[in-house]
Structure formats: structure tokens, C-alpha cells
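Run log, item B.
One chain of 383 residues. Sequence copied directly from the ordering sheet:
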Amino acid sequence: MESHFIHESIEHILSDKLNLHFVHHQDMPRVIREISSAMNLSFTEYKSTIPMVEVVTRLLVRQQIDFAPMPKSLSNENGVLIGKMIFMSYFAAPAREQEPFSIYELVPIPFNKGQRRVQLAKMPTYLEIEHKSQQFIRWSKEEAATCDFEVMPSCRESPIRRKEYEDDCIYQILTDSILKDCRIESFPDKVFIRQVGQHWAISTGNKSKCHAVPTEDFDEHILMDNEEVTLPEIALITVHNEKALVCDRFIIPKTPTNVGIPINLIYNESITPSYKVLIDLQAALENETHWVKLPYITSDMQDVIDFIKNTPKPAILNDFRIWRDHPISLTTIAVIGALILVIIVLIFFIYNKNKSGGTTNNITISMPSMKELEAREAASEKY
């Protein structure tokens, strides 16, 4: 195969950016067919929003570049041929003898719980169910970043397949059991809208008033007999092909094609297909007996809460009994107070004694006055 953009491709491969840019664009369709045949891959190309070469590139897990020198150099019009570059690409291929499985995209719909808007927490983005062994594979949003399951049911990042346990939220939802091990998290937006097949999942804080209107442009005004449609807080609704649905805070466009596949509801331990245009999920939540009084609290946490509630409160004691039963009793406090008072008295006594000076012998020297000295001097002159 002729090479194209080979230098750029080699630089990206050495930088761990796996690619197929070294393949010439004329050879790319044949390369895609050969890879798909060798890996037993199936594509749904009409649903793809990205080129097929990009889908196949996402399955690359390793690439290796080797140089094979020629035993004898050959000359041609482009120069001297001294060797060949060999690109070895490794893909994440599914197993040959693999049991059939199904992949589902999980869309947690927010709902109202008191004055808050919440949704189920820690839900995987995709869930694979292997029907025979009832094993599951979960993909988080980060793990599914390189996957495009609408185009190809294979992915480079495949988490560990494991058996679901009964104390798991997904297991309880699929088996229509009491939701004791689910969690909730806050949902900040006031309006949630998402297309699910031919339905639209809607969640708002209050009921919404809507009208079905045509989407064509009109040069003049028209009169319509259009009845108001009131949507519950949480609902699944199908919009007809002719008109869009205009509501207070959102607009649902008309569906270009009708898929025709009904939505399956897991309810009352059975899977029931529903062909209804409007499915009131709010009424189903309010009448649902699977929601316990304290939903989303694990059994371990519930045991702790029950233990705290059932633990008897200590008896209230009066102040004298508290001081009497205290490790530092009144007698101990009195003794300590007496010792402090004695120490204060001793310090005061020693201070006053040092200030007075105690019993000492004082010597007084009397000096004669000037008159006495003059009188004594005059008497001495007479003699």
C-alpha cells in the first residue's frame, strides 16, 4: 500500500497517538473491510456521525514500526530503495465464540423529592448484559469516551465483566425489587429534556402547559382550534410528525421518522411494551410501593439509625447529684480551696515581715548647732 502523510503518522505513533494516517486514502476502504472481516466486526454506518476510519482507529491498542533493510539496494525513478517501513497495528477484537449480549444506554431522569430536584447517583453511562450467564459490564462516562455503540458494539476500553449482586441498585431496578441500595444526588437544572428512541423524557419542577403548533412559515395569520396539553412533572411523550410541541420553558421539535419500536416498562415484575403517546411517570412514582419511607439509605446505615433511635436516653440528674457523683467531689474542692487560702496568708505575712525590717540596732549621731560651736570657741579663748 502506498504511504501518505507518513512522517506525520510516525510522529504521532511515537507520541502514543495511534492512527492510520500512513495508509493512502485510496487504500483506506479496502483496509477497513479487511480489518472488519478479520475482527468479525459489524457496523451500522447509517447511524454514524463520524468517519468509519475514526471508528476503527478507536479500536487500536498498540502500534509498532519496524525497518526491514533490503539485501540489495534498488534504484528507481524516486531514488534508491534501501529498505521498507513495516507498520504493525493491534486492535481490540471481540472473542470468536462470544455469547450474545445487549448494550443499553442509561438515562437517569431527575425527579422531585420534597423541595429538591434529584436524580439517581453513580449510574453507569452504558450497561452490557450477557443473557446466558446474566453477567454485566458497566461503562462510566470517562470509560465510554472512545466508544460509539450506536455504530459498532465493540470498544477499546472494556471494564471487568462481573455478576450483579442483590444489594446493587441496578439489580434492584432490573428485577423490580425494593430500591434499598440506590443513591440520589442533586440536579441543579430546572428543566431536563432528552430524546429516548421515539419518546422525549421530560422532567420539570412543575406541570407544563403546551400547545402543538405547525412548523411551517406563514405569510399571514391563521386561526387554529388547538387544545392545551398539560404535561406532568415527569413524563415520556411522543411528538407527531406534523407539529412541534411548544411549552412554557421548552420546545420539542416534530419527530422526522417514527421508529415504531415501543418502549418497554419494567413494572409489577413484568416487562410491558407501551404504545401510549404520553406516559405519566410522576403518577407512577407517587403510587409506587417499591420506594421505602427512607429511600436510598443502605441497610447498614438503616441499622445505625435504628440503633440510635432505640437506645434509651440517660436519666436527667439534679445539680447536687451531678457534683456528688463527679470524680472531683465537693470535699476535694474544699480541701484544695483551704490549701490555696493558707498559701496566700503565708505569702502576705512574709511580705510584711521583709518590709518592716525586723529587730536591728540603730546608731544615732547628733551634730551640734552653729551657736553651740561659737560658744565653745569663745570660752576657749578666755582661758
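Observations after the first pass:
- Residues 189-296 form one domain.
- Residues 293-297 have pLDDT under 50 and may be disordered.
Flagged for discussion on Thursday.
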